[in-house]
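User: tokens in, sequence out, please.
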């Protein structure tokens, strides 16, 4: 076929190219389409039926039937040999692939059933394997967006431990983010620190390598419940230590002990009535009368979210006493009772209180979405929800404390405007981010929470944590060296050692100072820190921490930059290399400049901004405002040089001769340089 021109604005992306049903599936089409590769051109083999007219017609690329899907069947009986789709099936509990005519036959020798490896640490492979495994019990078909062919190929045509394919920005999006294999990091211990100069992509690479925003997809026939976010969501505590829960969950009414039947109609009750009876909080006793039809009541014991119900009729005294309890109630319809409780980010000492826009509100909405509820039609039309799965991200700073990290005593903040008016100040013991991470890690091992894990015996813990397929949880600590690390970790510095963790042979359990509860660090919790060596050297960490962490250095990588910046003939690779060689000679390798300073730029104005707002201020900081030394890095084209001959005042016995003809250096304003002048100055950095 001969073509006179390349068609512009064709809706054909990397994901579509690999799935185009007229192209033969081989490794070049699947892999090189989405990788950054020195192989700029490669042959695409076509199969029957493709014509020049089909290729030239833009509507070809808009029709879903022109792109292969991936179907997974419980047995070979459902496989259609004539189907244009990729077909996988199960036979004797093993995953097989249909040898369709559109495949390159040589690829089948590399097919491997990796389903039993899911959960071993390759996050992108795990996502694909999890989707494929759903076809074991029920036939399921994915579009090229829901399960890209490249992602399937990476999971089933490569050893599980092989480096993963480039990350996809979002498997339901058509845009593809290309990431080199070398961007993927590998952990060498349970506790890992990545350190290096600023702008080397430490945090980005950590998040890309280990952190999953898990996509939970719901089938169209699965029941989902829409909630109205504009009504009241109420917190109801089912008695001290949750003793009322077993009775409440069996019925269709909800209430609480403070609103006793002996108070009569709550609408008629006054603050003086309560005061005369010394009955406690008028607000708490009468809150039930504010409950309206359509409100939601969330039953929560401590941090445990036990269930949610919809109020079917607002408070009415005539009906409020028709129940077997000693307190008044409102009728409800249960929406969900959790077999295993899910956890909010904090507890509440009040028995009954509004949740809307309080400190637990965002976490509550997340939990509800994770469990099949939704709040607007866009969520249901997308047929999926996104939830964080395997990590917590925090940043250390000078004010970050042991109480923030592990456990502390904090004031109870008001959940509503009514509580704000109260003068009563209460405190509670609040778990810090490290404790929360330990909770999550224990849940991934099959426990309800960390305390459930600690109540088990050592032998069972070892079985659970060392069981094949146990997922890992990650605590990512950015700017690790900016906090007072010894004070933040306290006594748990011992517990994070590999052999001292829960499930290890030499596990250690200690008692927390505030709650007096036992505490240990799960075996499947990974600690990952990042450190900027320009802020502080790693020598600032004492030997106790350095012994418990592995350290990997991440240095600037000029190869990630362009050799011809948008046609200007500016070689950013050579420029950064020259700058860093001089910085290392004058200061230290710890203070070199990262490649990220010069990424994601679209024109010469962006490069000017990078110099004016990032590079030059950084160099001024390194050389304590000595502009002359900045000139030794960037060159004279960026300087204005004057000899100051101003007369100094006379001071007795002071020799001022060295200052009389002193050379003064100033930086040229980058904004005042035209594009030609600036480009020439940049080129002079590496072509002096």
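Assistant: Sequence out:
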């Amino acid at each position: 076929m001969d073509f006179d021109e390349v068609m512009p604005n064709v809706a054909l992306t990397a994901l579509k190219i690999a799935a185009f049903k007229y192209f033969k599936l081989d490794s070049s089409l699947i892999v090189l389409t989405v990788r950054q590769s020195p192989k700029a051109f490669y042959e695409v083999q076509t199969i029957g039926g493709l014509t020049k007219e089909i290729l030239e017609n833009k509507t070809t690329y808009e029709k879903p039937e022109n792109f292969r899907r991936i179907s997974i069947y419980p047995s070979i009986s459902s496989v259609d040999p004539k189907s244009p789709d990729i077909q996988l099936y199960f036979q004797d509990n093993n995953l097989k692939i249909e040898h369709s005519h559109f495949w390159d036959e040589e690829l089948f020798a590399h097919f491997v059933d990796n389903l039993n490896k899911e959960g071993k640490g390759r996050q992108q492979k795990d996502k694909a394997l999890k989707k494929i495994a759903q076809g074991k019990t029920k036939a399921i078909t994915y579009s090229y967006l829901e399960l890209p062919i490249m992602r399937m190929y990476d999971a089933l045509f490569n050893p599980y431990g092989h480096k993963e394919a480039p990350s996809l920005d979002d498997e339901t999006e058509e845009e593809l983010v290309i990431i080199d294999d070398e961007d993927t990091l590998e952990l060498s211990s349970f506790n890992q620190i990545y350190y290096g100069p600023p702008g080397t992509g430490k945090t980005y690479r950590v998040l890309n390598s280990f952190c999953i925003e898990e996509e939970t997809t719901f089938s169209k026939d699965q029941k989902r419940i829409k909630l109205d976010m504009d009504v009241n969501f109420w917190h109801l505590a089912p008695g001290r230590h949750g003793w009322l829960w077993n009775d409440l969950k069996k019925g269709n009414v909800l209430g609480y002990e403070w609103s006793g039947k002996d108070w009569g109609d709550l609408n008629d009750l006054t603050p003086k009535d309560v005061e005369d009876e010394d009955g406690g909080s008028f607000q708490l006793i009468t809150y039930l009368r504010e409950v309206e039809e359509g409100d939601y009541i969330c039953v929560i014991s401590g941090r445990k979210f036990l269930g949610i119900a919809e109020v079917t009729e607002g408070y009415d005294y005539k009906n409020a006493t028709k129940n077997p309890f000693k307190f008044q109630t409102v009728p409800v319809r249960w929406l969900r009772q959790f077999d295993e409780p899910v956890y909010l980010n904090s507890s509440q000492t009040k028995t009954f209180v509004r949740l809307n826009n309080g400190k637990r509100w965002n976490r509550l909405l997340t939990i509800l979405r994770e469990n099949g509820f939704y709040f607007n039609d866009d969520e249901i039309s997308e047929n999926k929800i996104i939830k964080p799965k395997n990590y917590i991200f925090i940043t250390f700073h000078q004010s970050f404390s042991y109480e923030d990290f592990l456990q502390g005593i904090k004031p109870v903040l008001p959940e509503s405007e009514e509580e704000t008016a109260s003068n009563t100040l209460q405190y509670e013991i609040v778990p810090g981010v490290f404790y929360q991470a330990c909770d999550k890690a224990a849940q991934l091992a099959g426990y309800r929470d960390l305390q459930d894990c600690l109540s088990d015996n050592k032998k069972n813990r070892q079985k659970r944590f060392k069981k094949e397929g146990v997922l890992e949880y990650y605590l990512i600590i950015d700017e690790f060296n900016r906090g007072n690390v010894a004070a933040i970790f306290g006594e748990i510095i011992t517990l994070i050692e590999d052999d001292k963790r829960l499930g290890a042979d030499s596990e250690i359990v200690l008692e927390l100072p505030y709650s007096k509860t036992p505490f240990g660090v799960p075996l499947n919790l990974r600690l990952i820190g990042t450190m900027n060596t320009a802020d502080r050297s790693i020598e600032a960490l004492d030997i106790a921490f350095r012994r418990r962490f592995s350290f990997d250095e991440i240095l600037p990588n000029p190869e990630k930059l362009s050799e011809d910046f948008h046609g200007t003939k500016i070689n950013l690779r050579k420029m950064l290399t020259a700058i860093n060689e001089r910085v290392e000679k004058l200061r230290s390798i710890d203070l070199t400049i990262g490649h990220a300073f010069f990424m994601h730029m679209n024109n010469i104005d962006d490069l000017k901004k990078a110099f004016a707002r990032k590079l030059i201020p950084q160099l001024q900081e390194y050389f304590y405002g000595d502009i002359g030394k900045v000139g030794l890095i960037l060159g004279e084209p960026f300087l204005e040089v004057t000899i100051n001959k101003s007369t100094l005042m006379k001071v007795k016995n002071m020799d001022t001769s060295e200052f009389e003809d002193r050379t003064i250096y100033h930086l040229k304003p980058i904004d005042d340089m035209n594009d030609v002048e600036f480009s020439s100055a940049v080129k002079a950095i590496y072509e002096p």
